[in-house]
Design brief:
The chain is mainly beta. The chain has two domains: 133 residues, Trypsin-like serine proteases (Thrombin, subunit H), CATH 2.40.10.10; 88 residues, Pdz3 Domain (Roll), CATH 2.30.42. It is 10% helix and 39% strand. The chain is built from three helices and 14 strands. A six-stranded antiparallel barrel has the order 3-4-5-8-7-6. Strands 9, 10, 11, 12, 13 and 14 form a six-stranded antiparallel β-sheet that branches. A hairpin with a 2-residue loop joins strand 9 and strand 10. It is globular, with a radius of gyration of 19 Å.
């Protein structure tokens, strides 16, 4: 197969088979219709023998340390080992989502139940044509900060920096606490991303207030287009 398109914001990628496939495609379902408690089938590498029955145990917002966020992701249990790109199939045999992660907290309570996170298939139809035409979507021009962050004791801490990325060039260091973005307090990854992305497209400056040990300071981070760092160019 050859790559056709990639949308970082949803996590969906499209590939084109280089030769004919001798099996029918899965019909797209409606992930919005899935409810907590519904039985599903999770199928990935290994065919029918490797597929497992599971249940939807959560539908909620998800934010990842790599500057990624979904308004609503689907969580299932038990955990499926071949989760990357696995199909989440409803009881009607239709595709409801695509496997993205193994997680320790599939449920939103304190159970710490292991499971998987799936990207809802409803995110694909609205962007499919655009992905096919240009290899990406308009939303993918969000400003990229080039840092990894985590919520630590109610504060946003920098835990990693992309080499020669916007954050590193702006002077951020691992261990810095992000107190405010554009003058607005942030204490979660959701806060951080929403405020930063609302400032404009890639290339916009992102003002930050940071705490380094006991020293508070301000800086302006010049964001980038993350796709400028990817080798993938897309194919029509």
């Amino acid at each position: 197969a050859e790559p056709v398109a990639y949308d970082y914001d949803s996590g969906f990628g499209l590939v084109r088979a280089l030769e004919g496939l001798d099996f029918p495609p899965l019909e797209l379902g409606l992930s919005a219709s899935v409810n907590i408690g519904n039985g599903v089938l999770v199928a990935g590498h290994g065919g029918r023998e490797a597929a497992i029955g599971a249940r939807v145990v959560g539908k909620r917002e998800f934010a990842g340390y790599w500057e990624y966020m979904l308004d609503e992701a689907i969580f299932t249990a038990p955990a499926y080992p071949n989760w990357g790109g696995a199909a989440l199939i409803g009881q009607d045999g239709k595709l409801l989502g695509v496997g993205s992660l193994y997680v320790e907290d599939a449920t939103a309570n304190q159970e710490n139940r292991r499971g998987n996170m799936f990207v809802p298939i409803d995110l694909l139809p609205p962007i499919f044509d655009e992905m096919m035409q240009s290899g990406r979507t308009a939303a993918s021009y969000r400003p990229w900060m080039g840092m990894f962050s985590a919520e630590v004791e109610g504060r946003m801490e920098v835990i990693g920096l992309a080499s020669d990325g916007p954050a590193e060039r702006a002077g951020l260091k691992i261990g810095d606490i992000i107190v405010k973005v554009n003058g607005q307090p942030v204490s979660t990854m959701v806060d951080l991303y929403r405020v930063a992305w609302a400032l404009g497209k890639a290339g916009v400056e992102i003002p930050m207030t940071l705490l380094r040990e006991t020293y508070a300071f301000e800086l302006a981070l010049k964001s980038e287009d993350r796709y400028s760092r990817l080798k993938f160019q897309g194919s029509n």
